[in-house]
Amino acid sequence: MTQKTALVCGAGGFIGGHLVKRLKSEGFWVRGVDLKFNEHADTEADDFVIGDLREQSVVRSVVDRRFDEVYQLAADMGGAGYIFTGENDANVMHNSATINLNVLDACHKRNIKRVFYSSSACMYPEHNQLDPDNPNCAEDSAYPANPDSEYGWEKLFSERLYLAYNRNHGMECRVARYHNIFGPEGTWEGGKEKAPAALCRKVALAEDGSNIEVWGDGLQTRSFLYVDECVEGTTRLLRSEFEGPVNIGSEEMISINDLAKMVIAISGKDITINNIPGPEGVRGRNSDNRLIAERLNWAPEQPLKTGMEKTFGWISGEIARRHNQKAA
After folding, report:
1. Are residues 14 and 34 in contact, defined by beta-carbon separation less than 8 angstroms?
2. Are residues 257 and 316 in contact, defined by beta-carbon separation less than 8 angstroms?
3. Cα dihedral 258, 261, 262, 263 sign
4. Where is the NAD-dependent epimerase/dehydratase domain (predicted)?
């Protein structure tokens, strides 16, 4: 039996690193490509190429054969402090769109059919996410389009790009809209980290009896999906006959203040919350999992607290390890 092969674009990133591990556990030969290695874990890829997917020559060199599965996760992205300030809009749109144009066309020319594209819940209309208690993120609510950020507009454009290649070139691309993926071995400092990691870091570093800062009034709501369930949904979708777009996210909605309280409780510390002005995105967002349950007969089920306990434990360990290295 011939060994199956997979290409993971963005393999040096958080989700990409976990996806490589999953594919290796299934017996795939895996090539990863990214601008950098993952700084939190050694790659398990059989071949890892350091390269810039904005460059056509790089893309041609990594898409040098027919892969059974291609996962396109590479993008210029980050948390609210990176996406919603407006200062990075040109880079976000240019870099991500160029990567998608290059990777998709190279796959088409190599006659690769199955390509997964990771879109984002940021493409949903802002006007459907003004009520923190009742956001509408059903897949068919995407139009009339009105994303709250240029990041969301680029994601929406690229969704249409992949589905156009399906129609015009007979490809079998699959599109998922990720909702706030979190877990160990992800970015937790530096400005591109997302809320779960940022709160874990703040609480881990805080002294007992002190406070942590939370952007906005903290009443904005989100749902967060643990990375293992994200990888499960991703592989299921690519191997299915459903092209999407479909949400891959949790339906367990929580306010940012309550998420912070959850992390504080996990830590066992006595810490208060100080709400300060800062970028916060839409007021409410939650995954709607009716379509994925219907078409894939699957939806994520792990409680948020379980994933947050694992993530806090990992980030606390990373902070302690760094402290010990400095003390040595």
Report:
1. no
2. no
3. positive
4. 6-249
Calculate helix-pair angle for 150-169, 89-109, nearest 10 degrees: 10
The span from the CA of 72 to the CA of 8, in Å, is 6
In the chain, where the domains are located = 5-181+226-248, 183-223+252-286+303-320
Q: Are 5-181+226-248 and 183-223+252-286+303-320 the same fold in CATH?
A: no
Q: Which CATH superfamily groups domain 5-181+226-248? A: NAD(P)-binding Rossmann-like Domain (3.40.50.720)
Residues sharing a CB contact under 8 Å with residue 23, sequence separation 6 or more, in sequence order:
6, 8, 30, 69, 235
Give how far the C-alpha of residue 301 lies from the chain's centroid of Cα atoms, to the nearest Å. 18
pTM of structure: 0.93
152-190 core/surface letters (b: 16 or more CB in 10 A; e: else): bbbbbbbbebbbebbeeeebebbbbbbbbbbbbbbbbee
- Separation of alpha carbons 11 and 197, rounded Å: 20
For residue 29, give every residue at least 6 positions away whose Cβ sits within 8 Å of its Cβ, in sequence order, or none. 3, 4, 5, 6, 46
Residues noted as catalytic? 151
Q: How far apart are CA 197 and CA 185, in angstroms?
A: 10
Closest CA to 60 of 24, 22, 7: 7
- Averages of pLDDT over runs of 10 residues in the chain (328 residues) are 95 96 98 94 96 97 97 85 80 95 98 97 92 92 93 96 98 97 92 90 93 91 97 98 97 96 96 88 91 96 97 95 77
